[in-house]
């Protein structure tokens, strides 16, 4: 009988201890400063134009735009190189023959694709 009463008293003690711990936790969590901080955090991370979600989206967009810019710069460099080639009369004729299959009236052009 003593064993059962002892276990029951320990159970009540632990239950009271858990309740006291929960009360302490609630007292600190429901503190007005903590609640204000949580609300501010939610607003900062999820709501508004300057939220963290929007900042992450914008950073991703900036990264994509920089990649496109790099691609366009490489295309511009290639076109500038072709422009430098075209500016010389001898290479202009070669470029026209290779790119646009131009020929003189006496010539015949045969295109062989590999």
Description:
- The protein is mostly helical and 114 residues long.
- The chain has one domain.
- Helix content is 79%, strand content 0%.
- The protein is rod-shaped and about 110 Å long.
- The mean pLDDT is 80.
Short synopsis of the structure:
With 114 residues, this protein is mostly helical. The protein has helices at residues 2-29, 32-46, 52-86, 89-100.
Structural class: mainly alpha
Spans with pLDDT under 50 lasting ≥5 residues? none
Largest sheet: none
Instruction: Report the sheet-strand fraction.
Output: under 5%
Morphology call? rod-shaped
Number of domains: 1
Chart the SSEs and their pairings.
Layout lengths: L1 H28 L2 H15 L5 H35 L2 H12 L14
Keywords:
single chain; 114 residues; mainly alpha; 4 helices
């Amino acid at each position: 009988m003593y064993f059962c009463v002892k276990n029951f008293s320990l159970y009540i003690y632990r239950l009271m201890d858990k309740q006291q711990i929960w009360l302490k936790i609630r007292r600190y969590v429901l503190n007005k400063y903590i609640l204000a901080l949580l609300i501010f955090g939610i607003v900062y991370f999820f709501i508004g134009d300057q939220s963290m979600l929007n900042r992450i989206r914008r950073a991703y967009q900036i990264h994509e735009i920089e990649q496109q810019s790099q691609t366009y710069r490489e295309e511009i460099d290639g076109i500038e190189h072709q422009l430098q080639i075209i500016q010389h009369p001898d290479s202009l004729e070669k470029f026209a023959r290779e790119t646009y299959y131009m020929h003189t009236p006496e010539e015949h052009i045969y295109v062989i694709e590999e």
